[in-house]
Amino acid sequence: MNKYLLHIILLLFTSLHFQAQNLDKIGKKDMIKVSGGFNLNTITYASSGTSYAGRDPFTWFASGNINVSILDISLPFSYTYSNRVGKFTQPYNQAAFHPKYKWIQAHVGKISMNFSPYTLSGHIFAGGGIDLTPGKWKISLMTGRLNKAIAYDPVLNNLNEITYKRFGYGIKTGYQGKKYELSAIVFKAKDYSNSISYIPMGTDIHPQDNLVLSLSGKTTLVKNLSLEGEYAVSGLTQSTLDINPTEGKQTLSFFKPLISGNSTTNFYQAYKSSISYKLKTASIALNFEHVDPGYKTLGGYYFNNDLENYTLAPSLKLLKGKMNLAVNAGFQKNNLSGDKSATTNRWIGSLNMNYSPVQKFTINGSYSNFSTYTKNRPSTEPFYYQPADTLNFYQLSQNASAGITMQTGKKDKDMSGNIQLLYNFQESTNITGNIQDANAFGYNVGVEGIPSYVQVGNLAYSARFKKSKMGLTFSSNINQTEILDQITLYIGPTLNIQKKIKEKINFSAGSTYNRQYKNSDLTSNVYNHRISLSYTMKMKNEKQGRMNLSLNANWMQKLPTISTETKFSELNIFANLNYSF
Question: 482 to each of 103, 371, 424, 453, 491, how far by Cα in Å?
Answer without folding.
Answer: 60, 20, 14, 5, 15
